[in-house]
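ok so i was messing around last nite and threw this chain in just to see what happens. nothing serious, just curious
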Amino acid sequence: MTSHGETIEALAVAALAVLVIGHVGCQRPDGDEPPRHTVVLGNSSRPASAPEHDYSKGPLVLEGRTGSPAVIEGRPRVVDGDSLVVSGVSVRLFGVDAFELAQRCHDRSGASYACGARARDALVRTIGSLSVRCTRQDTDHYGRMVAVCTSAATDLAAAQARAGWATAYRYFSKRYVDDENAARDAEAGAWSGRFENPRDWRRANPRR
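result:
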């Protein structure tokens, strides 16, 4: 017959096993803890779906994997069509996906051209010599601050989408869908010809 002390010891071991299994199930394969706004499915994770934020009530600030500042301002260095460095902080524009710097598209005649470089140049022209103000929305898996950035009251992501050098990043937000549709209707930028969606292009051309 099992003694009272043995029963308590067995229950304690079982409880500890449950805690260990639960902790392992919440870790990524690489051992990193997922961000708190992530839904964990087994050993994989995906961004949690959430209703579109009402930006008229103020910026949405989520807790990401690293502690980037809530707001930064300064003269930026443009990296590509949706990335810049502001006050030493790497920033990715929220809600849009611009053509990658090495990406090429085709104009209406079928000729290939460097649409990634044009996307970067368009962002440079929009900003000019002005400063930008970026409000953090999240932090991506590269550690970059994902932000809504403005320059002289111009939303940079909206400007890129409306000029036809970025698509609305629907996987994360539908905020700039109307800007993309306007560019498509006007055949602005890359919409005057043919192009591969930047996300699909990255999958076919992974970083080495």
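not much to say yet. Residues 11-66 have pLDDT under 50 and may be disordered.
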